[in-house]
């Protein structure tokens, strides 16, 4: 199968295993492209892509922009924090105005879960969800899967633990869907207050002891504590969180096997992981950043319906 079964990338939940594998294989080709001296390809030369970020994001937005430029697309950037949205304009108005400019594809981050799905039903453009509230962040899950596959050779049968603020994390949910579809075993680990009640219904085990989780896993994905999404105190202090769920070099070195360490960024250094872990040989954090561009190129290329290189 050489095309996606979906018209938009709204979440991993809507993708099947073939879709995910096609995106990862296509991303492999694009990774070779972006490591060449001339990094651009004309794949999206006559397409216009609008980046709509209703929430702040530096890394995801830059990664998408770079991917769009590498594909030779025309790019329109829209940041809602300094726009008409503050004056009460609705999401549909904003998007219709942008579509009136003949945009083919919209990359959107929004604070409301389901915003991308809402949009896809109402506008005639390809929609890519770059994060909707604490719901999904599909391209992050795809780049994480790509990075694990690149490091370990495959994902099927691998044990992956997602550690930290599962409750507020769109990365966790997308990762769980993606890794399970590719045949991995997934556990989550964190304070009970940050583990959503429904998580076990997704076929995910909960482990409250970090050391046990790390001894079990092949890969530890250390999530950022999202203080900006926490309206009440979910744990006493950051220091206490770090003592219970922070990963330092001492713990990493004391494990019975070498595990792979990931982090979706931005890192609160010294909270989820210490600098010597983030910068260690076992960390693939910088690979994730590089792979993010290739994966986002693959998603846009495939949604645009272009075959071949």
List the helices and strands and how they pair.
Layout: H1 17-34, E1 48-53, H2 59-70, E2 74-79, H3 91-99, E3 105-110, H4 115-120, E4 126-132, H5 138-152, E5 159-163, H6 170-181, E6 185-189, E7 205-207, H7 210-216, E8 219-222, H8 238-245, H9 249-254, E9 260-262, H10 275-278, H11 285-303
Parallel strand pairs: 1-2, 1-3, 3-4, 5-6, 5-8, 6-7, 8-9
Helix pairs in contact: 1-5, 1-11, 2-11, 5-6, 5-11
Descriptive report:
The structure is a single chain. By secondary structure, the protein is an alpha/beta fold. The protein folds into 2 domains: 12-137 and 289-305, 3-Layer(aba) Sandwich (Rossmann fold); 138-285, Rossmann fold (3-Layer(aba) Sandwich). It is built from 11 helices and 9 strands. A 5-stranded parallel β-sheet has the order 7-6-5-8-9. Strands 2-1-3-4 form a 4-stranded parallel β-sheet. Strand 1, helix 2 and strand 2 (74-79) form a beta-alpha-beta unit. Helix 1 packs across helix 5, helix 1 (17-34) packs across helix 11 and helix 5 packs across helix 6. The longest helix is centred in the last third of the chain and has 19 residues, at 285-303. The protein is globular. The mean pLDDT is 91.
Intertermini distance:
16 Å
CATH class of the largest domain: Alpha Beta
Assign the CATH superfamily of the largest domain.
Answer: Aspartate/ornithine carbamoyltransferase
Q: List segments where confidence is low: pLDDT < 50 over at least 5 consecutive residues.
A: none
Task: Write a concise keyword list for the protein shown above.
309 residues; alpha/beta; 2 domains; four-stranded parallel beta sheet; 38% helix
């Amino acid at each position: 199968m050489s095309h996606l079964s979906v018209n938009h990338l709204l979440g991993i939940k809507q993708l099947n295993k073939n879709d995910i594998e096609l995106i990862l294989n296509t991303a492999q080709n694009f990774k070779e492209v972006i490591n060449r001296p001339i990094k651009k390809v004309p794949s999206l030369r006559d397409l216009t892509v609008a980046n709509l970020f209703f929430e702040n994001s530096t890394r995801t937005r830059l990664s998408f922009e770079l991917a769009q430029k590498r594909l030779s697309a025309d790019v329109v950037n829209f940041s809602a924090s300094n726009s008409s949205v503050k004056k009460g304009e609705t999401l549909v108005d904003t998007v219709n105005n942008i579509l009136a400019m003949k945009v083919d594809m919209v990359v959107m981050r929004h604070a409301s879960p389901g915003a991308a799905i809402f949009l896809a039903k109402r506008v005639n453009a390809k929609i890519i969800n770059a994060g909707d509230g604490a719901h999904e962040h599909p391209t992050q899950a795809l780049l994480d899967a790509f990075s694990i596959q690149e490091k370990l050779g495959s994902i099927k049968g691998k044990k992956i633990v997602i550690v930290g603020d599962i409750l507020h994390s769109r990365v966790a949910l997308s990762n769980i869907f993606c890794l399970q579809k590719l045949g991995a075993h997934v556990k989550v680990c964190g304070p009970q207050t940050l583990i959503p009640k429904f998580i076990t219904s997704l076929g995910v085990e909960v482990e409250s002891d970090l050391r046990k989780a790390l001894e079990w896993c092949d890969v530890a994905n250390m999530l950022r504590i999202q203080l900006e999404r926490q309206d009440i105190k979910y744990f006493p202090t950051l220091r206490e969180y770090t003592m219970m769920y922070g990963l330092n070099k001492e713990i990493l070195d004391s494990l019975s096997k070498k595990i792979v360490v990931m982090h979706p960024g931005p890192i609160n250094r010294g909270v989820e992981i210490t600098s010597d872990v983030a910068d260690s040989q076992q960390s693939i954090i910088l690979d994730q950043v590089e792979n993010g561009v290739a994966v986002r190129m693959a998603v846009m290329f495939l949604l645009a319906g272009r075959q071949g290189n």
